[in-house]
Amino acid sequence: MSGLSRWGRARALAAAAVMSIGIGVAGTPAIAQEDAWAAFSITGVEAFNRGEFIDALDVFAQALVIAREFEHSDQRLITSLANLGMVYRSLGFFDEAEPMYQEAIRLQTSALGPRHPDLSATLTSLADLYMGQQRWADAVPLLSQALEIRETAAGPNHPFTALVVFTLGEVALAQEDWEKAVGLFSRVVAIRQQTFGAVHQSLIYPLTRLGISFHALGVLDQAEMSFSQALEIWSTVPLPVSPEYLMTLEAAADLYRATGQQDRARALDATAEEFRELP
C-alpha cells in the first residue's frame, strides 16, 4: 500500500474516531476490544519510535476507534487521543493534533480533576504544539497551569518541575523577554545543581540559554560565566553529537567577539566548523 493511500486511510479512520463512529467494533466482546486496543497501541508506539509516522497514525487511529467504546473517563481513551496528537504533530498536521490534545485535556480534567499530575504532561504537549506554531499567548497559560500542578504534586525544586520551568524559559527566549528568561533558566540551573551536582550534563541546556539571555541584557560577566560552565561540562562528554553543542559554541564565540576576546572566539569557531563537518 502506498504512503499516500495509507495516509488517506489513517485520516479517514481518525475522522471516524473523532465523530465516535464505530468501525468494525460494535458488538465485539469487551475483552476482545481491550486486547485489540492494546495491540494497536503497542504497534503504534513501535512504528512511531522507528519514525514510521504514517503507519503509526494508521494503527493509533484504529486504537482510538476502539477506545471510543470505553467509558469517557477511561485512561485508554485519553492515551489514544494523546498518541494521535503526537503523531499528527510529528507529521506537521497541527490543525489535526490540536483537537486531540484538547479533548484529552477535557477528559482528564473531568476524570482526574484539574490538579492531577497526569494532566500536566498533556497540557505541556499542547503547549509544545502551540510553541511550534509560535502561538506564545496560547502556550503560556497551559504551561503556567502545568507548572502549578507540578509544584503542588512534586514540589518547587523537583526535576519534573524544572522541566516545565525550562519550557517557559524557551517561550521567554523566543519572545526576547530576556529578564524573564534569566529568572526561569536560573531557577532550572539551581534545581538541577541541587539535584544532580555542579557538572551534570542536564545543566548545559539552561546554562547556554542563560548565557544568551545575559548577553542580550548586556550583563557580559554573567554571560561569560554561564558559557564557561556549559563548555566545561561539554568537555566531559566523550563525543558531543547534539545540535546543542553547536548552539553553545556559536553563542559563546559571539560573546567572546563582543568582548574583544578574538583568539577564544576563533578557537570556538574552529571547533564549531569541525562539528558541522561530522558525518
- Report the radius of gyration as a whole number of Å: 22 Å
Molecular shape:
elongated
Helix/strand structural class: mainly alpha
Uncertain runs are: 20-27
Helix content: over 70%
The mean pLDDT is 91
**Beta strands, count:** 0
Order of helices and strands: HHHHHHHHHHHHH
Q: Profile the largest sheet.
A: none
Describe this structure as you would to a colleague:
The protein is mainly alpha-helical. Helix content is 78%, strand content 0%. It is built from 13 helices and no strands. The protein has helices spanning 3-18, 30-49, 53-67, 75-91, 94-112, 117-132, 136-154, 159-174, 178-196, 204-217, 220-234, 243-258, 262-276. Helix 2 (30-49) runs parallel beside helix 4, helix 10 (204-217) packs antiparallel against helix 11 and helix 10 (204-217) packs parallel to helix 12. It starts with a helix and ends with a helix.
Write the layout of secondary structure elements.
Blueprint: H1 3-18, H2 30-49, H3 53-67, H4 75-91, H5 94-112, H6 117-132, H7 136-154, H8 159-174, H9 178-196, H10 204-217, H11 220-234, H12 243-258, H13 262-276
Helix pairs in contact: 1-3, 2-3, 2-4, 3-4, 4-5, 5-6, 6-7, 7-8, 8-9, 9-10, 10-11, 10-12, 11-12, 12-13
Entry summary:
The chain has helices at 3-18, 30-49, 53-67, 75-91, 94-112, 117-132, 136-154, 159-174, 178-196, 204-217, 220-234, 243-258, 262-276.
